[in-house]
Each structure stands twice: as structure tokens, then as C-alpha cells.
Amino acid sequence: MRPVGATDRAAIPLARRRRGAEWFVTRSLTYLVALVLALFVVAPIYLIFVAAVTPRELAFDYPRALIPSEISTETISFFLNASGVVPSFWRSVQVAIITLAIALSIGAPAGYALARYAFRGRETYRLTVLSTRAFPIVILAIPIAVTYIRWGLDDSVIGVAFMHTALALPFTVLITSSIFVSVPRDLEEAAQTLGCTPLQAFVKVSLPLALPGLAAAAIFTWVLSWNDVFAAAILTLTNQTLPAKILSALTQSPIYYQFAAGFVMLVPSLVVIFFIRRYLLGLWGRVVK
Amino acid sequence: MTARLGWAPYVLLLPSLVYLAIFFATPMAQAFALALQDRDGNWTLASVMRMIDDPNFRDSVTTTVALVILVLPVQFVLAMSMALIVNARLKGQGLWLYLYALPLGISELAAGIVWVSVFTQTGWLNTILQGIGIIDRPIIWQSSETPWLLIMTIVLAEAWRATAIIMIILVAGLQSIPPEFLEAADVYGATTWQKVRRVILPMLRPSLQVAIILRTILAFQVFATVVALAGTGLTVLSREAQRWATDIDNDHVAAGYAGLILLLSLVATLLYLWLLPTREEHRA
């Protein structure tokens, strides 16, 4: 009996050690690949930051300094003071806020209906909304530009916002619907048995619970609008949004203007991703289901 | 409650339907009318012929298709590796997901400019290559003389910017694979590669299909990255659409280009559905 026990004791750690070694190699390799990929994603963000904080007179220095000797706001302020940049920045903010307001006020009720009611045509509606994603959005901007001239909306902030709402609305509907699905219906019903009207039950019970998710959906919509270049470039001429302004200035602008412009456009996107990091999977993963 | 408020869902849906009818369905139809009619509303192929005869037409089609074909495989290898890493329970699981997802909100134009700072003649790539002694004077990456180099810079920029969306879809798909499946594979002594090949990839098929179709449709619309990195050195379909709409002020030819993008996206989508059917579609 004793020898058996002894071989057992010897054998088990050996097997474990073997598996452990293989496990260790796989694990180390995984960390290595993970790091390389992270570097690929993060390094360009660092590099544009360095390019944007390098003073203008050093912009053509070569080889460039990977670690800036000083952080200068001179290039960025040159960009911000360039003609038309600040007004176009504010127009972009306005367009994004209007888009967000219209998309949520039209899309959230539809999302709520999809989540809470069983009714005829529910699947048809869901599929219709989903199928809008099969159409390239590029195709919308040109006919809409023609229509806007007739409506007197050409070259206007509200016109761009209407167009962005059309892009964002399907997402808003699907995302808000999945958010309301995750808020238990029982609570709303309990509120109604305690004397709330359906509207009160929604406002006092479901809405507060759905609020963080709705905020994330709102930010998602905001990003869609903030990032659009193509539609804005087609729909505006003098009242350009920031991306449209930068695009039209690109060919005749010095390289440090471009660096600052790229950096200024990048920062809000990174901040936004930070705030909705807990909803990343929910927002982008869910909308395709 | 459902019976008493039978009209309620329809009232809630109505505004979104009206909105999509005005700003989505109508312009879609108008795009085709624009492309196939003249200024007086007569049906004609004149604008389409003008588009095809334009010297930029062939280049824009070739470059767009080349970009789609080159970018997608790169993105899928990257996205799949990232998704598997996020799912591998490394230390700081949430951090990896967050890092890889960083470019999600970055616009095409910003991404293009970021990579201009890398590829410009006095830029980061030449600085690094010269620093480690691979080259002794800066290489010109962005020149219309070498369109293939230009295309490679755009492929890199697009892979950097738009891989995150695929990664997120794949991570969501991975998380829906029941852990018992992988545990069973472990019990039978499957290697990591066998698990990926025999369990994960087949289970991930619906997510892969959605991600491929979505990404292809987006790739056919590539625009600002090309403008930022290639200037006038290369042209793509959406660039031509924008040029005809704003610079030349001919909405008919512009709509023709837009229609062509839709057509190519549709063909690609049907091709994928035919080549990569999911299990559900087999059953249906």
C-alpha cells in the first residue's frame, strides 16, 4: 500500500507540473499578443497627442522627438484660432444635441413599445428597423440635399441634425428597447396595483431604473452625429460642422493644423468611450442581435 | 392591460415610422430617381453613362473594391484575436476590452489624420525606422506615384479605427457560448487551437456573419480616411459622389455613385448569406 501511495504522490505533481508548464507558456504568449495588440491601438493615440503638443516651429523637425521636451498648447491654439473653427465646433455641438433630442424623443417610445407590449406587427417593425442598417447611409445624403433646397433647409444646422437623426434612430429604437427589456416589468405592475396610472408607473419606476442605460444610448447617438463627415460635407457649404470644416480645409492647411485638428476631434471620442465603458458590449453588441 | 391599451404600442411606434418614411425610405427611392432621370424628370441612362465615362470611375471602383478585400481579412484576424484575449480571463479583463474598444468612437477623419502623423515624410514611422537603423533617410510613403503604398496606409488606418466594432460583436457572441461546451472540450483534452477551431468558431458563426456583413457595408462607404491619407492621390466611390455633389454640382451623377455603393453592398451581402449560411437559416 505504501509504494502505491508513494507513486501517486510522485505522479500527481509531475502531471500538474507538465500541464502547468504548458499552461504557463500559453498564458505568457497570450499576454504577449494582448500587449502587442494594445500597443497597436494605443500608440497612435499617444503619437497624435505628441504631434499636437509640439510647437509649430518644430513641426517639420526630423527625426521627431518621441517624448516631447515640453507640452505646448501653441499648435492647438493656432488651430482653434484659425478662421471658422470655433463656430463650426459649436455647430457640431448643436447638431449633436438636436439629433440626440429628436432621436430619443421619437426612438425611446418605440423602444419601450417593443419591450413592453405584445402586438401584431411587432416583428415586422423590428425587422424593418433592423434592415435600415443594410443600406449604406452615403446614399441618403445626396437626395436629401436636393430636397432641402426645396424646403429651405440647405446649409442649416437643423437640416444636418434631421439627417443625423435618420442615421441614429434605428440604433436608438433597438438600444432603448433592450434597455427597457432589462427593467423588470413586475415593478411597473406593482406600482399600478398600488394606485399608479400606467404613465405614473413608467415615470416613477421604469424611467429611473432605465436612466443609466438611456444615458449611454444618448452618448452613442451623440457620437454618431459628432463623427459624421460625409453627410455634413454634402449638406453644408458655409455653415459647416467641425468635421466638414476640417475636411474642406485639409488640402490647403499646414500639417500642424491637421495634427491639432485630429487631436481635437479625437479627445471627445475617447472621453465618451470612458464614460460608457460599462455599456460597450450592451450598446454595440446588442444592436446587431 | 395589453387588451385595454391595444392602441398604445401603435401610438408609440408611429412617430418613428413617420420619421423613417420621410428621412429614410423617401430619399432611398429618390436616389434612384435622381440617378435615372434628367432635370425634367424623363427616364434616361445619360447620368449613368456620364458616370461610367468619367476618367475617375474605374479608379474609384478598383480602389474601393481593393480596400474592401484587403481590409476585411486583416480586421477579422485582429478582431478575433482581441475577442479571444478579452474572453481568456487575463488579469484586468475589463481593461483589455476597454483598451481595444478605444477607437470605437473615433471618426474616420480623425483616424485618417492620426495615421498621417505616422506616415508623413517627417513622421513617426520614418523616425522610428531610422532610429533603429533600418533606413538611413526618410521614405516617402504617401505619394500618388506609389498607389499601393497609399492603399496600405489606408488599410492600416481602417484596421486601427474600425476593428473595435467587430471585436465587440465577437465578444458578445463568445459570451453567449455556454461554458459547459468548453469544459467538455477540456475534459477530452482539447488543445486551445482545437477548442477555437471545433467549438468556438462554429458557435460564433451567426456573430461572424453579422459582423462581416456590417463591416463590408461600411467598408464600401470609406471616405474621410482616404481623403486624409491619399489627398487626390487615390479616389473611392463615396469621394466621387461627394465631388459630383458639391464641386461639380451634378446631383444626378452623384446619386449614380451612391446607387453603385448600394448595389455593391447588396451583392456582397447576398454573397455572404449564400457562402456562409448560419444554422438557423438551414433549418428555416
Write out key terms for the chains shown.
heterodimer, A: 289 residues, mainly alpha, MetI-like fold, 2 domains, 12 helices, disordered N terminus, B: 284 residues, 13 helices, globular
How does this model look, in words?
The complex is a heterodimer of chains A (289) and B (284). With 289 residues, chain A is an all-alpha fold. Chain A folds into 2 domains: 2-53; 82-286, MetI-like (MetI-like fold). Helix content of chain A is 77%, strand content 0%. Chain A contains 12 helices and no strands. Chain A has helices at residues 2-53, 74-81, 85-116, 122-131, 138-151, 157-181, 185-193, 198-227, 230-235, 242-249, 255-275, 280-286. In chain A, α1 packs across α11 (255-275), α3 runs antiparallel to α8 and α7 runs antiparallel to α8. In chain B, α3 (55-87) packs antiparallel against α9 and α5 (108-119) packs across α7 (147-175). Chain B is globular, with a radius of gyration of 23 Å. The mean pLDDT of chain B is 88. Chain B contains 13 helices and no strands. The longest helix of chain B is centred in the N-terminal third of the chain and has 33 residues, at 55-87. Classes of the chains: A mainly alpha (289), B mainly alpha (284). Chains A and B meet through α1, α3, α4, α5 and α6 of A and α1, α3, α4, α5 and α6 of B.
Secondary-structure blueprint:
The complex is a heterodimer of chains A (289) and B (284).
Chain A: H1 2-53, H2 74-81, H3 85-116, H4 122-131, H5 138-151, H6 157-181, H7 185-193, H8 198-227, H9 230-235, H10 242-249, H11 255-275, H12 280-286
Helix pairs in contact in A: 1-11, 2-11, 3-6, 3-8, 3-10, 6-8, 7-8, 8-11
Chain B: H1 8-36, H2 46-53, H3 55-87, H4 93-101, H5 108-119, H6 124-131, H7 147-175, H8 179-187, H9 192-219, H10 224-230, H11 237-247, H12 251-275, H13 279-283
Helix pairs in contact in B: 1-12, 2-12, 3-4, 3-7, 3-9, 5-7, 5-10, 7-9, 7-10, 9-12, 11-12
